[in-house]
Design goal:
It is a single chain. This protein has 186 residues and is α/β, with parallel strands linked by helices. The protein is 35% helix and 26% strand. The chain is built from 4 helices and 8 strands, in the order E-H-E-H-E-H-E-H-E-E-E-E. The protein has an 8-stranded mixed β-sheet, with helices on both faces. The protein is globular, with a radius of gyration of 16 Å. The two termini are 20 Å apart.
Length: 186
Amino acid sequence: MTSHDAPGTALVTGASSGIGWEYATRLAGRGWKVVLVARRGERLESLARELREAGATGVETLVADLPTPADLSRVAERASASDVDLLVNNAGINGYGPFTEVDADLLDRVLTVNVVALTALTRAAVPGMLARGRGAVINVASLLAFAGDLEAVTRLATAELDLRRGSGGRVAARYREAGAEAREAS
């Protein structure tokens, strides 16, 4: 999972539960310093405490609600720091229901978290990674939005911006479905 020999700092959004919690736990277990980002401060502190008790060092929490412009700016500023070698864009929300019946404010939050924040954080982190010649961005997304059935909940698409070995910022996409894995590079 590392993009170079020694782990650096990973910034993980949506770290207060689920996949984000798991990414943070595994990265810290592999020696990465972690910046935990989520809107639920009490859950972030619980994770930070758990990681420290397990021996992790360099655990930082950043409580932020990504649809809030000031919070997104704070997280983007942290993502642009020279120590961030891995950005895990895991935060995401959904707006289930027929399109014409979903509340417009909820749709705005969905787009802000799932598209605008992801783009802003990636834009903040990548220039430094390119300048240092190392780093990676992992975008975690659910394919449930494209599914006609609940079976699709098990599908996960992850896009990685792979900056190692002089890739020049090419994007590689990994798709997993029920244990099957394929890899494409463009």
